[in-house]
Amino acid sequence: MSKPSDDTVQILLDLSRLLRNLTRLVGGADDGPPMTATTRVALVELGDSGPVRLNDLAARMGVSAPTASRSVDALHDLGLVERVVDATDRRAVRIELSEQGRAQLEERKARAKVAFAPAVAVLSKSDREQLSDLLHRMTEALSNHD
């Protein structure tokens, strides 16, 4: 494995700083119901994907099935997810956001939008489109990298 270039390291540091600031502004684990970072990731993934089986959720989160299961248990205890029988396979269970879970996720997204607004405001429409394209391409590259 090759050593990352100085440019790559600086990009990672800048991105890390941006994410820390955004997390601080949006609210972390202590805002709203108590959740770990992994549980918050599960909440977002369930919001993005809709009802999924546990193994599919674990894959989306990049964690083991037991880790995903603990996150789902925590979200269930908070009333944010429901377990429903899979209509295509009665032996399987799908996990989906409850009405309260959808409301919690929308609240977090709204706070993120407000918190991120000053950063977005300094960019032109063209810059925002370019940034969005670059972030999408980087995310896809990482998603397809095995």
Structural class: mainly alpha
The proportion of strand residues reads 5-15%
The total beta strand count reads 2
Strand order of the largest sheet: 1-2
Shape: globular
Note the total helix count: 6
Report the helical percentage: 55-70%
Order of helices and strands: HHHHEEHH
Termini, distance in Å? 14 Å
Cα radius of gyration in angstroms: 18 Å
- Overall pLDDT score: 86
General description of the model:
By secondary structure, this protein is mainly alpha-helical. The protein is 66% helix and 10% strand. It has a two-stranded antiparallel sheet with strand order 1-2. α1 packs across α5, α2 (37-49) crosses α3 (54-61) and α3 crosses α4 (65-77). The longest helix has 23 residues, at 99-121.
Overview features:
single chain, 146 residues, mainly alpha, 6 helices, 10% strand
Summarize the structure.
The protein has 146 residues and is mostly helical.
Topology, please?
Layout: H1 6-26, H2 37-49, H3 54-61, H4 65-77, E1 81-86, E2 89-97, H5 99-121, H6 125-143
Antiparallel strand pairs: 1-2
Helix pairs in contact: 1-5, 2-3, 2-4, 3-4
